[in-house]
Amino acid sequence: MLRLLLVLVFTLGASLAFAQEPPGGSSLIQQGNNPLSIPAITLSTDAEGQQEYSVSLQILLIMTALSFIPAFVMLMTSFTRIIIVFSILRQALGLQQTPSNQILIGLALFLTMFIMAPVFDQINREALQPYLSEQLPAQQAIERAEVPIKNFMLAQTRESDLELFVRLSKRTDIATPEQAPLTILVPAFVTSELKTAFQIGFMIFIPFLIIDMVVASILMAMGMMMLSPLIISLPFKIMLFVLIDGWALIMGTLASSFGTL
Q1: Cα-based distances in Å from 161 to 66, 154, 194, 197
Q2: Where are the transmembrane segments (predicted)?
């Protein structure tokens, strides 16, 4: 994903640089009181019948795509499952602000990049690089880029969730999961990710809940009603999490749940 962002930024910067200084060093502002010329936004068709976009229109499309990157990261990758599991883990440990939200989000982003690396490499190899080398038109490059993302989401989406949104859309022309458009596949994928994240979070919560119950029972038997069990159980939960190498276990489980390991 970082490689794709850098390619988009450098492409945009190069296009703007060429647009600011045309060949020959002539100024964009003509002599006299003529207004500043505005680059044309055109759409043409080449000899093979394929559509070609002007540089200005390509820049506009790139800027629009950049605005959708946060939604893409959160809803079409492994980020949703990872950040929910991390949040449930922090709640199970009884730590309110440790690790902080910034650390959890950063860790979730880098783990997402690790899990999604094969998908991004395939997009870069089959769609982005041929488009940048002018071997593919923009429309065909977008269609090729959709294939790896759809395959990833289909592998993580439950059939029941996909059938639910197909039924809600009242589409009768979808016979196989591969025919589902992104407008149907994305909400089905997010629903499945929420279910899976909650299942993993439930399994994480059980051992820490047992520690809380044991500590509460001991304090009640000793008559120490005024002492909060959370204060006493917190160091025991942290010690247990460290002894079992909890962070490596959690991140390894998350990565293997996507079939990465």
Answers
A1: 29, 11, 11, 15
A2: 59-89, 101-120, 200-226, 238-258
Token digits for 28? Answer: 């964009």
Q: Single out the residue of 43, 75, 45 nearest to residue 188, CA to CA.
A: 75
Q: Per the structure block, which two tokens stand in for 138? A: 């923009």
pLDDT above 70 (res 103): yes
Beta bridge partners of 43: 53
Looking at the predicted structure, is the pLDDT value of residue 26 above 50? Answer: no
DSSP string, 167-221: HHHT-SS--SGGG--HHHHHHHHHHHHHHHHHHHHHHHHHHHHHHHHHHHHHHHH
Pairing of strands 43-45, 51-53: antiparallel
Name the residue ranges covered by the structural domains of the chain. 2-6+50-202
Q: How far apart are CA 80 and CA 73, in angstroms?
A: 9
CA dist 201 and 195 (Å) reads: 10
Backbone angles phi, psi at 44, to 5 degrees: -120, 170
Alpha carbon 168 to its chain centroid, in Å, reads 25
In angstroms, the Cα distances linking 231 to 41, 89, 90, 95 are 64, 17, 15, 11
